[in-house]
Amino acid sequence: MRRPASILGAIASLTRSDPDQQPALLSYGFRPFFLAAGLYAIVAMAAWMGWLGLHNMHASVNSPSISMAPHLWHGHEMLFGYASAAAAGFMLTAVPSWTGARRVAGLPLLLLALLWIAGRMAVWFSAWIPPLVVALIDLSFLPLLTVVMAAGLMLRPQPRNLVFLGLLAALAVANLQVHLEWMGYAAGDASQGLESAIMIFSLMVVIVGGRVVPSFTRNARIRLETARPLPVSSPAIDRLSVLSATTVACLALVGAPDWLLAPACGAAAVFNAIRMIRWQTAAVLGQPILWSLHLAYVLLVAGYAGVAADKGFGLSGFSGQHLLGVGALGCMTLAIMTRAALGHSGRALEVRPIIAVAYLLVAAAAVVRSVGAYLVPQNYFGVMFVAGGLWMLAFGAFAVVYFPILIQQRQFRTPGD
Predict the structure, then answer these.
(1) Could you tell me how far CA 64 lies from the centroid of its own chain?
(2) How far is Cα 216 from Cα 230, in angstroms, rounded to an integer?
(3) Quick one: which of 308, 297, 291 has its CA closest to 272?
(4) What are the pLDDT digits (tens) for 6-24?
(5) What local confidence, expressed as pLDDT, does residue 198 receive?
(6) Segment 253-265, tens digit of pLDDT
(7) Cα gap 405→61, rounded to integer Å
(8) How close are the terminal C-alpha atoms of the chain, in Å?
(9) Is 376 helix (H, G, I), strand (E, B) or coil?
(10) Contact 281/293 with Cβ under 8 angstroms?
(11) 301 CB-contact burial (10 Å; exposed 0-12 / middle 13-18 / buried 19+)
(12) Would you kindly state where each structural domain of the chain is located, as residue ranges?
């Protein structure tokens, strides 16, 4: 048994002002949230696969712990569980780099992480908790994260960074839409809230991807000295890419009809495809840490095009949304998490071969889930199990490789970290 003095010492360490004096896991925002995202990606998908397995065998659970339809629970937890944790880790890491703000670490970071966990537990055991209490617990995380981020961003307020506060607020509204249906106040709002969240997260991929994909690619090409040409960007196309994606997110948030969403998604696909053409994707095919970012953006374009086709032509069994949610969002978050964890822990920016495979597994899961049921509708459950298995294998690899990286102190300091 641990001595009381040791316990008090551990608690006291969490209140220290110097982030570098904190326990490793609580020294930087990416550590607990990237770890939570990676593990929860496996756990939540395994639970969904288990339910599908029971359904396939015509079995049921007599006393389920969730109060909502399982497919809504699945969508909610992948978006407001996994993706929100990944986004929190990214924001808590990026804001200090953007503004010079002190890192959120120690006890504040622990409380923020515990609040995210509390939201997961409330939803998982919602059958035994009043719906209003479930909503209050789960809905509290994103607003608090927004407040924490605002405190850092306002030190050097720039519109290009303040936009993330709007994205977090929009995600909170989408989550509220889901809970309003679960509380019995609105019909159909849960599905709308989930679609809104997919489009908001996709907009986040457009914004973040537009910054990091050409920038990281350019830096890598310059290091090769003779490597040319370099990625280039067009300010006009960049603005149209972001504007079109913003339009899609806003339309989804207000529940616009398909005849409006379809052309908006088509425009987003076109502008983002044009944007990416000049990023020199072919030049990074030998560098997984770079081509993973490009792959995420390819899936983003395919996802917008897929949603446009789905809503425009009503393709039964086809799911363009999963190209966005599983493909673009899954690949981009995994690419960012693997890169940031290496860079901010003092390691070389080179991923292991198994992580390169993991990137491809997530992309494969997206494709199988999106088109599998359309191509072989008679084998729906087989398609779901394959897609879910690929996803779990990918994040299983992430968990095995990055668990020690995320819980250990950084190896050495690097400029700008």
Answers:
(1) 27
(2) 11
(3) 297
(4) 543 444 445 456 777 789 8
(5) 97
(6) 999 999 999 999 9
(7) 38
(8) 37
(9) coil
(10) no
(11) buried
(12) 23-56+70-407
Torsion of CA 146, 141, 296, 389, to 10 degrees: 180
With tokens 């359309």, the residue in question is 374
Tell me the backbone φ, ψ of residue 352, rounded to 5 degrees. -70, 155
At 207-256, the pLDDT tens digits run 999 999 999 998 888 877 655 678 888 899 999 999 999 999 999 999 99
Tokens of 249: 């997110």
Alpha helices per DSSP H over 60-130: 70-76, 84-99, 106-124
Residue 82 and residue 48 in contact, taking contact as beta carbons nearer than 8 Å: no
Tokens at 199, concatenated: 């489009």
Number of Cβ within a 10 Å radius of residue 231: 20
- Tell me if the domain spanning 23-56+70-407 has CATH number 3.40.640.10: no
Show the tokens assigned to 92: 């808590």
pTM, entire model: 0.93
* Other beta carbons less than 10 A from residue 254's beta carbon: 9
How big is the chain, counted in residues?
417
CB 310 within 8 A of CB 320: yes
